[in-house]
Amino acid sequence: MRIRQIGVALLAVFALVGCEVTTGGGPVVQDAPRPTPQANAPAPQAVARFRTVVERVAPVAVQTCRAQTRNRRCDFRIVIDERPGLPPNAFQTLDDSGRPVIGFTSALIANARNSDELAFILGHEAAHHIEGHIPQSQRRAMEGALLGTIVGAALGLDTAGVDTAQRLGGTIGARRFSKDFELEADRLGTVIAARAGYDPVRGAEYFNRIPDPGNRFLGTHPPNADRIETVRRTAAGL
Fold first, then answer.
1. Cα 164 → chain centroid
2. Residue 189 has pLDDT above 90, yes or no
3. What percent of the chain clears pLDDT 70, i.e. is strictly above it?
4. Helix/strand/coil percent split, the chain, to 5
5. What is the pTM of this model?
6. Are the beta carbons of 123 and 196 closer than 8 angstroms?
7. 100-105 and 77-81 as β-strands: parallel, antiparallel, unpaired?
């Protein structure tokens, strides 16, 4: 699963309504009907549950971001990816202006069994940004690509071979610490969810219902059991 300053805007694009929630002096909610509901849209009850989770967890994520970072934007934009056929998933990225974006697919909102799962996942994705995982991954990918280029050239590879070595080095560099990043986001996501009044241990039960990636070499995610144990250990220490 696949996770900013004064005047924070939190935008959740719902399957049936567009809702903008602004923190600062209390939430302001504006609804506008969508012209054509998507076939894969979650039920209205699921949308309402997600909206409540966003309104409670997002301010805690913003506060945590401001407290733990310097010169990093904390105005999270939270969106639903409504494209048909997408599996349950959540992600964190940056838009063209550098604003942190957290996305949930409609399938994930529909499949979540309770608010605790949604809160933990939202906290986890926010934690990726707070911990600076995107720039760290980019930096390590660049370092790996540079090393691959140097090695390819030293071996006397042709241009195509050097390009391949560069891509391989970049992939290895980006993935080398990805499992650690996931566990780090699990720990801080646990704290964020708990501070928002949710049960992160109950939320982490979501891992019991998704495929276990195991402990693959250069895998992007750690085993589900390790993630559940990380959440339990973190929650016990709060």
1. 30
2. yes
3. 72
4. 55, 15, 35
5. 0.72
6. yes
7. parallel
